[in-house]
Amino acid sequence: MKTEDLIAALAADLEVKPSPLRRLFALDVLAGFAVSAAFFFAFLGLRKTFFASLDEPRFLFKFVFTLTMAASGLVLVWRLSRPAAKIGAAGWAVLLAPALALLACIAEMAAVPRDLWMTRMIGHNAVHCLTLIPLMSLAPLAGLFLALRHGAPTEPQKAGAAAAFAAAGLAATLYAANCPDDSPFFVIVWYLLATLIVVTLGWFAGGRFLRW
Amino acid sequence: MRDLQGQDEEWSAAMRAALAGDGVAYSRLLTVLTPYLRHLCRKACARAGLAASEAEDAVQETLLAIHLKRHTWDPEQKLTPWIAAIARNKIIDSARRRGRRAETDIGDFENILSSPPETEHFEREQEKQDALRLLDRLSDKQREAIEAVSIRGESIRAASEKLGVSEGALRVSIHRGLKSLAELYRKSRT
């Protein structure tokens, strides 16, 4: 087939319109999050003290942290999903959540006696955190990967990692509602470690599945 | 030398018209883009150590990608950088799949897209060359559908009557065929 023939075929295909990327992104993220949320409410559920804790700054900070992570990850992955889109400050914005956690830790150091620091950091069940956050990341990550495959990420590994960061943020938001540990010490160590696991997975999976 | 800003505005306007369904504007745009892409692909192929004969395949692979990913262009942005990024991705990826390091800098791609294409003897030769031999590897249904509207230049209606299928079914065959071609291209370079 000559190139001019190919162009004729492409023009003939113009009426089959691809669905808008923005809508697909929203739908896929929501669907992925819904799957994880269903899993969460079926097997984990809100912790017993959930409503009683709503006025505790440490508890609320966990959600500030996880939602910041999710939001900054989503903005970055959206930018990375299209060729030649400007990344701008979105690349740096992923450092916002860890920076907030660092500030919270400094506040915690001032508020809590030194001999309690270790106990707070170890918490009750770090293994739960390290397994449940990656596990609940999988569905939103799959949703984001579907959306990215519809897009055209020119840096597939970075796009995969950004998708993973967002997915981990969403999963951590669910997990935080069950997890009994509220200290920023716990959050910065275990939540971030869990995120790192997911981001590593996203980086490699991106290189494997997001080329086009 | 032409006004580069003006050129991009012209191309962007054509692409917006195409996205709104204007097939004539679309094929005109792709035809105008082709010599630029050819120049780009030939240079990149040379630099990545690929044979010049690969260039026309790369041109067609890039055109396919532009088409299949056209919804990722933001109409508020310039078209040229978007096309440069797609072409760069296609060419680097194909070089990488052949185990070469492709050092192609995006600035270079945009420069080529914004300078007038050369028309050389070599280029006219390339134009006549049959790339996309992969057409034979499609299913009969998809291949016939694509051949009807491309090589034979039939309208959707005429082709659907001749092939005895509905216009909708024909459109689906063309679309799936083009997607499979893009996929075959990806795999053919491993």
Radius of gyration of chain B: 17 Å
Counted beta strands of chain B: 0
Structural class of chain A: mainly alpha
Number of strands of chain A: 0
Count the domains of chain A.
1
- Identify low-pLDDT runs of chain A: none
Give the helix level of chain A as a range of percent: over 70%
Domains of chain B, number: 2
Structure in a nutshell:
Chain A has 212 residues and is mostly helical.
Which features characterize this protein?
heterodimer; A: 212 residues; mainly alpha; 9 helices; 0% strand; elongated; B: 190 residues; Arc Repressor Mutant, subunit A; 2 domains; 68% helix; globular
Polypeptide structure, described:
- The complex is a heterodimer of chains A (212) and B (190).
- In chain A, 74% of the residues lie in helices and 0% in strands.
- Chain A contains nine helices and no strands.
- In chain A, helix 3 (57-79) packs antiparallel against helix 5 and helix 5 (96-111) packs antiparallel against helix 9 (184-209).
- Chain B contains nine helices and no strands.
- Chain B has helices spanning 4-19, 23-47, 55-68, 80-97, 106-114, 121-128, 140-149, 156-163, 167-188.
- Helices cover 68% and strands 0% of the residues of chain B.
- Chain B has two domains: 1-131, no CATH class; 132-190, Winged helix-like DNA-binding domain superfamily/Winged helix DNA-binding domain (Arc Repressor Mutant, subunit A).
- By secondary structure, chain B is mostly helical.
- At the A-B interface, helix 1 of A face helix 2, helix 3, helix 4, helix 7 and helix 9 of B.
